[in-house]
Design goal:
alpha+beta; 366 residues; ABC_transporter-like_ATP-bd; 6-stranded antiparallel β-sheet; 6-stranded mixed β-sheet; 8 helices
Length: 366
């Protein structure tokens, strides 16, 4: 077993192109860390630095307390699963799975034993004599996973392995990956821009933006306690409502809606109010604080309708609030009265974008 640790890892191409900015994090045995973020945020570069496919400008990579920063990829005892599968088209499934072991001159009997075990786990027994061109995308992805498994590595690295699969197959393989790596008891680092994969697979998620780690926490903390506006807006579908509203006294003002702010030494002139669409409710008679608007768009999402409501935030400005409602509520073109439960509201500083009034400490930073 081996702990993976990145210490002040940096990759600089030019003074203006810095895809990884002093990232520090660790992945324990049995932990599944997902690097989540938009294209260009540095997540694949971090994976390549761990694998040794790129050299860091500064910082260190250690595996099991051994500094591997300057070691070749083949000397790091890692296994990597690529987005493109990277299978040899002229080799059979068996030969593809065994290829890495043969390069390491593993005894033939041990190769057969390891390949048979990986094949059993991933359901490949009937495909062992086929070549990649004779298989579906999901089958080829399982072969790529099997080739990684047989190596018995210290660390698994997966670079968007499901992005080439259709939606139904992606869901199936995602469930297989979760069960598969839960049994491996070694660090796993998974790269994706798909938040569903990150939330369902991970024990920890690192949300990245422009080379910086914005938040490092378990999935439920990322979702329920976002560290800043970027995390709040990036994680969650539909996206969180983020509204800049004025403050008066100890309250934030949204039209006729006055939301008390937690006690602070100085109330800012403005603050960003965040609330997820699933937490915006149709007001009931007993609700004291309500806001009225007009529905101008209804999107049918199957289990819910996503409504967009135009609300008069002030005499000169209107804002849009989105809410998830049961599918039997058809409100297109109608006036509607909403309420925003205070316990589901997030607050962010206008200038820094950082969360304020958080009840629990957040794991934020590089």
């Amino acid at each position: 077993m081996a702990k993976l640790e990145l210490r002040n890892l940096n990759k600089t191409y030019t003074p203006k192109v810095i895809p990884v900015k002093d990232v520090s994090l660790s992945v324990e045995d049995g932990e599944f860390l997902t690097l989540l973020g938009p294209s260009g945020c540095g997540k694949s570069t971090i994976l390549r630095l761990i694998a040794g496919l790129e050299e860091p400008t500064r910082g260190r990579v250690t595996i099991g307390d051994v500094d591997v920063t300057n070691k070749r990829p083949g000397d790091r005892n890692i296994a990597m699963v690529f987005q493109s599968y990277a299978l040899y088209p002229h080799l059979t499934v068996y030969e593809n799975i065994a290829s890495g072991l043969r390069l390491k001159k593993t005894p033939s009997a041990e190769i057969k034993e390891r390949v048979a075990e990986a094949s059993r786990v991933l359901g490949l027994d009937e495909l062992m004599n086929r070549k990649p061109g004779q298989m579906s995308g999901g089958q080829r992805q399982r072969v790529a996973l099997a080739r990684a498994l047989v190596r018995s590595p210290d660390v698994f690295l997966l670079d968007e392995p499901l992005s080439n699969l259709d939606a139904l197959l992606r869901e199936k393989v995602r469930a297989e990956i979760k069960q598969l790596f839960a049994a491996q008891k070694v660090p796993v680092v998974y790269v994706t821009h798909d938040q569903t994969e990150a939330m369902t697979l991970s024990t920890k998620v690192a949300v990245l933006n422009k080379g910086d780690v914005q938040q490092l926490d378990p999935p439920h903390r990322i979702y329920n306690n976002p560290a800043n506006q970027f995390v709040a807006g990036f994680v969650g579908s539909p996206q969180m409502n983020l509204l800049t509203v004025p403050c008066q006294g100890n309250s934030a003002i949204l039209g006729s809606f006055r939301i008390p702010l937690p006690e602070i030494p100085t109330t800012p002139p403005q603050i960003v109010l965040g609330i997820r669409p699933e937490n915006v409710l149709i007001a009931q008679p007993e609700d004291r604080q309500t806001i009225r608007g007009r529905v101008y768009l209804v999107e049918n999402l199957g289990m819910h309708n996503l409504i967009s409501v135009r609300v008069e935030a002030s005499q000169t400005e209107a804002v849009t609030i989105r809410a998830l409602l049961p599918p039997d509520q058809q409100l297109s073109g109608e006036d509607v009265t909403l309420t925003l439960p205070p316990q589901f509201i997030h607050w962010f500083d206008v200038e820094t974008g950082n969360a304020v009034f958080t009840k629990q400490p957040l794991t934020v930073g590089r």
